[in-house]
Amino acid sequence: MVLLTSQYTKLKKGDAAPDFDLGGIDGKRHSLGSFSGKKAFLVIFMCNHCPYVKPKMEYIAKLQDVYGPQGLQIVGINSNDPTNYPEDGPEGMKRVATAKKFHFPYLVDKTQETARAYGAVCTPDPYLLDGGSKLVYHGRLDDAHGEPHENGKTQEIEDALKQLLAGKTVTVETRPSMGCSIKWKAENGL
Predict the structure, then answer these.
(1) pTM for the full model?
(2) Domains in the chain with CATH codes
(3) Distance, CA of 73 to CA of 75 (rounded, Å)
């Protein structure tokens, strides 16, 4: 396991987030534009097997359930190469999404181009976007890396989300997320 932190070389605060057109485990294609009228997007690069993502799955699902009615749309994107990590393939994604009650699209980034466009390197790697798809926060969910949210003392992503949904400028301090490296395909390795 290679442990990495969020990188800030591609997408900067205020930048328009790259759109994507990815297939979901629901059998549909999804893009940022397919969620018109949302006030906030939380794009999270995640996977099924990472010990830093697993303890956050319930929290991520809860964020969608609590803040969805206020205008949030979470989009989970799995960019891992399922050849060497079969549990991160679509069938594994379906099992996890059902078990963890994901009420948000869980998408497959087969080419890994979406992860590269965002500059994502680890799981989880969350990007909070405003309704115009501009980046307002890219950092950790909380300070409980590798542990359930309830074990943390902070809730940076939720604080940023509350500011955004209230129409305020997001002032939450950016601290990098930490997790397993995205499992790049051999020909695309970093």
Answers:
(1) 0.95
(2) 3-9+36-185 (3.40.30.10)
(3) 7
